[in-house]
Write a structure and sequence with these properties.
With 193 residues, this protein is an alpha+beta fold. The chain folds into 2 domains: 94 residues, Alpha-Beta Plaits; 83 residues. Helix content is 21%, strand content 35%. The protein is built from 4 helices and 12 strands; from the N terminus they run ββαββββαβββαββαβ. It has a 5-stranded antiparallel β-sheet with strand order 3-6-1-8-7, with helices on one face. A hairpin with a 4-residue loop joins β4 and β5.
């Protein structure tokens, strides 16, 4: 797996942008939809009540198998129509997935009940051979009115380097193409005692 990073130009997006963004990406690279390991990392944005605002340094990051690199390269310079605006992608850069001891997923899809959700997390980690500590965050929903994904935010800490890279590559739960179950480095504030 590798991250493809694109500069992003645009001003606003609807709160439901992950669904429209995925549709626009698949329109240009249909093979993205054929591989369930492909992920679109959540954009770093600012929100207000009506729309999502894109800071100037926001990047679009796709996490995908290295074998899809050449196909995805056609996205450089693409204009994605996501009403009320248009996103323009800059030149593509590659970024290897690095080990970090603490990772965070904004929304990992799963059961409505927090205890059931955490049991599924522990089962998934056991299947991957990952040993780490977890903190379950708030319940979240991503919806565009036609489809919804429910789950919790999740912080995973005390990860060994190999486990950190594995978790970032494997993800967790459904909706990777919408930014769900994608683990990213999480900054830790230590020595608060």
């Amino acid at each position: 797996m590798i991250d493809l990073v694109f500069d992003l130009r645009g001003e606003t997006l609807p709160h439901t942008y992950p669904f429209a963004l995925w549709a626009e990406l698949v329109k240009r690279v249909p093979r993205l939809a054929e591989d369930e390991t492909v992920a679109v990392l959540p954009l770093k944005v600012a929100t207000n009540k009506d729309v999502v605002l894109l800071p100037k340094r926001t990047k679009l990051v796709l996490r995908l198998p290295q074998g899809m690199l050449q196909e995805a390269a056609v996205l450089s310079g693409a204009q994605l129509d996501i009403p009320p605006g248009v996103l323009t992608l800059g030149e593509m850069k590659t970024r290897e997935i690095q080990a970090h001891p603490t990772l965070h997923a904004q929304l990992a899809a799963g059961a409505d009940d927090e205890m059931e959700f955490m049991e599924a997390v522990n089962t998934r980690f056991s299947a991957l051979g990952i040993s780490a500590n977890t903190i379950c965050g708030i319940r979240r929903t991503l919806s565009d009115g036609r489809q919804s994904i429910n789950g919790y935010s999740l912080v995973v800490h005390d990860l060994k380097p190999e486990a950190s890279v594995l978790l970032q590559c494997a993800g967790m739960g459904e909706g990777r193409q919408f930014g769900c179950g994608i683990f990213m480095p999480y900054k830790v504030i230590s020595d608060l005692e």
